[in-house]
Amino acid sequence: MSNDVKISMQDVHKRFGPKVVLDGINVDVARGESLVVIGGSGTGKSVLLKCVLGLLRPEQGSILVDGADVVAMSSGERKKVIEKFGMLFQGGALFDSLSVWQNVAFGLIEARGMNKKDAKDIAISKLAKVGLGADVAELHPGELSGGMQKRVGLARAIATEPEIIFFDEPTTGLDPIMADVINELIRECVNDLGATTITITHDMSSVRKIADKAAMIYKGKIIWQGPRADIDHSGNEYVDQFIHGRAEGPIQMDILKP
Amino acid sequence: MNFLFSALAAFLAPIGRFALGALENLGHVSLFTWHALTAIVHPPLYLRLIGKQMLNIGYFSLPVVGMTALFTGAALAQQIYVGSERFNAEGTVAAVVVIAIVRELGPVLGGLMVAGRVASAMAAELGTMRVTEQIDALVTLSTDPIKYLVVPRLIAAVITLPLLVIVANTIGIMGGFFIGTEKLGFNQASYLQITVDYLEWADVYSSLVKAGVFGFFLALMGSYHGFYSKGGAQGVGRATTNAVVSSFIMILLANLIITINMFGS
């Protein structure tokens, strides 16, 4: 394995009771690369990210971050690794007891021990980066629209300037224009930071905008991976069906036909 | 013969499932408690959050706990009067009220009222944080969610409940005093004198120990059920119910154990 591999997942298995969610995932992400994982709902995309973060423990396989296996780590060691991560959650997952700037500054204050004034300045500059003014900083998350919450979530994910950022369905639930704004912001922020990212989505416009490399997950396995440019002529009928959004094809939805 | 076996299995399986489920929960709670207790001794402690929780658990519970104690103390005095009249022992009202309130009713009813108010709120808040991924978000921001969310609630409850119970005991005795002097015709000075004479240091001590233990259990149950809730709005609702029911049972059981240990011999 070359030094340029930032995250390497090897043969990762995860199941909940009898339900197998990840069934031998193998994928590498190079330093500074943007991997976009596509796949239908309920195919284990979120579980994959949670395994890397240590929120879930896979039964089998290894996940190397900078060459260190996070699966076998003690919680103390994992805490050090976690500091390299930032994450944008699907629903934003903003702390509704805190104001917007306290949300953005959370990692700086609680984990890095920065004083409040400096952290607030950084929070406001990060908010500006995602196109939100200083007046938003004093509001509470409940007072924001969905698109604004996503942007605050993005500001929070990049506030500590992490080496690795995860995006969990960043455009789900947004109108197409706001979705494009978010995609642009993600691309911009990632370029500025030089971060390694994994995005999970089923939005093809995100794939075309954000991805360096794409991978498709189906039934707990990566069934195809390759550069973004290849996705339109992957030669894989599963991928073709997915990116064109056809009901007919090898992927059959578990619905009862009348 | 086969029929007999399958009937036996059908009878035993639910019992086994229940036992396994109970043991699994016990293990889960124990691990959670262990994690929380080890987090208490490792810095940082979030003092601001502890203060906020103390305000919420203590100060805002005062009206509920105060009213409970007042009405209970008053009703108790009336009942004891009626009961003791039959033995011409009306003089015992003040003594029985003070002992019953301080040893049992103050801490138990106070604990139950606070559990109803606070354990449910904790479960609902943490449960919502769980289902909206806020707890996962804490982890990605390098913050231990148990340390940040659970420990302040545990510490605040253990400190605040004894203070609340002191208030509850005082108001409960006052409730008895009002009925005793205004309705039952006791002399005010002698009622107070009997109250003071019969109140022993051990009673106060047991009252405070109970309150601290009850505070620990109600915060633990509220946090635990919220922390591991799943399944959206319904799951949060279930967590809230379980938090209240389990903290009630824990409080009543702990009360029995402490009472037997302190006053049984």
Q: Specify the biggest β-sheet of chain A.
A: 6 strands, mixed
- Supply the number of helical segments of chain A: 8
Low-confidence stretches of chain A: none
Secondary structural class of chain B:
mainly alpha
Tell me the CATH topology of the domain at 1-84 and 195-253 in chain A: Rossmann fold
The CATH superfamily of the domain at 1-84 and 195-253 in chain A is P-loop containing nucleotide triphosphate hydrolases
Low-confidence stretches of chain B: none
Tell me the Rg of chain B in angstroms: 22 Å
Q: Calculate the mean pLDDT score of chain A and round it.
A: 85
Structural class of chain A: alpha/beta
Distance between the termini of chain B: 54 Å
Assembly classification: heterodimer
Explain this structure to me?
The complex is a heterodimer of chains A (258) and B (265). Chain A has 8 helices and 10 strands. Chain A is α/β, with parallel strands linked by helices and 258 residues long. Chain A has a domain of 143 residues: Rossmann fold, CATH 3.40.50. In chain A, helix 3 crosses helix 4. The longest helix of chain A is centred in the C-terminal third of the chain and has 18 residues. Chain B has one domain. In chain B, helix 6 packs across helix 8. The longest helix of chain B is centred in the N-terminal third of the chain and has 40 residues. Chain B is an all-alpha fold and 265 residues long. The radius of gyration of chain B is 22 Å and the shape is globular. Chains A and B meet through strand 6 and helix 3 of A and helix 5 of B.
List keywords for this structure.
heterodimer; A: 258 residues; alpha/beta; six-stranded mixed beta sheet; 10 strands; B: 265 residues; 87% helix; globular
Quick recap of the structure?
Chain A has 258 residues and is an alpha/beta fold.
Secondary structure elements and their pairing?
The complex is a heterodimer of chains A (258) and B (265).
Chain A: E1 5-16, E2 19-30, E3 34-38, H1 45-53, E4 60-65, E5 68-69, H2 75-82, E6 85-88, H3 100-111, H4 116-129, H5 146-159, E7 164-168, H6 176-193, E8 196-201, H7 204-210, E9 213-218, E10 221-227, H8 237-244
Parallel strand pairs in A: 3-8, 3-9, 6-7, 7-8
Antiparallel strand pairs in A: 1-2, 1-4, 4-5, 9-10
Helix pairs in contact in A: 3-4, 3-5, 4-5, 5-6, 6-7
Chain B: H1 2-41, H2 47-57, H3 62-85, H4 93-131, H5 134-140, H6 145-183, H7 188-198, H8 201-227, H9 232-263
